[in-house]
Each structure stands twice: as structure tokens, then as C-alpha cells.
Input
Amino acid sequence: MQKFTKRNLLDLLMIMLGCAIYGLSLDMISAPNQLTDGGISGISLLIKHFWGVNMGLSSLLLNIPLIILGYRFMGKRLLAYTIWGTLWISFFLWFWRLIPIIYQLNLEHDLFLSAILAGTLSGIGLGLVFRFNGTSGGTDIIARICQLKYGMSSGKVLLFCDAIILLVSLSYLDIKHIMYTLVAAFILSRVMDTVQQGASSARGLLIISDKYQQIAKMIDLKLDRGFTYFEARGGYSQVNRPVIYLVVSPREIPAVKELIEAEDPKAFVSVIEVHEALGEGFTYKQKHKHLIIRK
Output
């Protein structure tokens, strides 16, 4: 049996906080402005409309096979976190209805603003839940499985699931509210990925050049950035040569390109997106903030 640690306590507290924010978004913005929902909530609305089944009952019955599926793929700890998140979502959806704060934002005449705010708050809430290894039940479980097994973005998986459910919801809702709900779902997916993956975005560069030594020297002297050599072999020439791997902030990309261009205009450069960068120069002991290349 695994020992309960301070990290586990932090996970549980942050999952609870994320559920509180998500529940507040649904109660304060989505419901009063008639923005529907994706996931299990959206399916429950469909079942209630066509067959009159209580939403609480249908939500519970739909979550049971998903929780079992989550146990099969995610293990005991994530199952416990999922049950924890599901219970807190239910609690806060009930709790926020008792607090006057949900009546303080009158957005009923601005669906666009409602969609933006709903997507942002929901994205922050679900992002916290996923960042600390939990889910809030429903299609969140499917998103977590896709992330763990296939490396897919959880926000994009949720957006895909929500889009399908919302399209089916056209059978009883008008197109205007569905479209604004899609706007909220898109914003939710972007905000959720940012919160989950971290805001310390960076860019990775793979640099292939016969003048790699000169380029590496200029990177060290003018950018004050560390770099790594990878040993690679040309697919056609079969010649071994070092490849420079470098991580910089997005604003430093023009400076790096200028530096490479000056040393070797024929160099091959691949720029890749790095969702989160941790370590020296990014999250601690940041040496310099360069506006231009140092002369």
C-alpha cells in the first residue's frame, strides 16, 4: 500500500479547488445564460429531453462505466482522484447555488462575453484538476486516458467530445446558443492546456550545419544559453555529424536566426514548440533577459 504524502494532500486540495472553479463557472455563467455543456452533462440533458430521465440518475449511471474504464487504464490512485473530483463537482454545483455571488454577474444580454468568461473559468478549473493528476469524471476520464496512452492533448480531446455532443444537442437547442457554447468550449481547451502544461513556453531549435562549432560558440558568447550536441547520421550521405539542440524563449528566436544566418546561411534549422521549460534560464537562476544580441 502506498504511503500518503504531502504531495498527495496537495493533489487532493488542488483538485478540489479546480472543481470549485469549474462548478462556479457552470452555476454563475453557463446556466444563467443558457449555454449548454458538453461531456456527461450534455448527454444527461439530451436524455432528460427525449426520455425524461432525471439528470442526477443518468449522470451517475453514465459515470460508472467510465470510472471502471479509468481504473483499467489509470490505476488505483487515479481512480481515487477521479472519484474525489466527481464528488466535489457534485458538491460545488449544489453549493454555489446557495451563495449570492452567482447573481452578481449579469451577462444575459452578452452571450459572447459569457462564452469567453465561461470558457476561461472552466479551463482554469479543469486545468488545475488535470495538472494535479485528477479528473472530474465524465469525458474527462476519456481525455485522461488519451493523454496517458497516446500523448494526446487533453484539452483537444475534450473539445472533440464536446463538439460531438453539442452537434447532437441541435435537435432541441437553437443554433445561436450552440455556437456560443462552441466558442466557450474552444477557449476552455486552450486555457486548460495552458494551465495544465504550464505557462513557461519556449522554443526548441535543432540546428544542422557544417559550421556547428562556430554557431555553438556564438550561442554561448552572444546569447549566454546552454546547448547540447546530438550525434546524428545523414540519411543520404550516411555521414555522422553533431546536431545542436537549443531551447530559448520565443522572443529570442529572431536573434538566434540572425546569429545562424551570419555564420552559415545554408544551415538547416527546425524550430519546435516546447510547452514548458524548467531549469536554468527559465524557472530559476535566470542570467539575462536579452532584448537584442549582445555585441
Q: What stands out?
A: The chain has nine helices and four strands. The first helix runs from residue 6 to 30. Residues 98 and 240 are 68 Å apart (CA to CA).
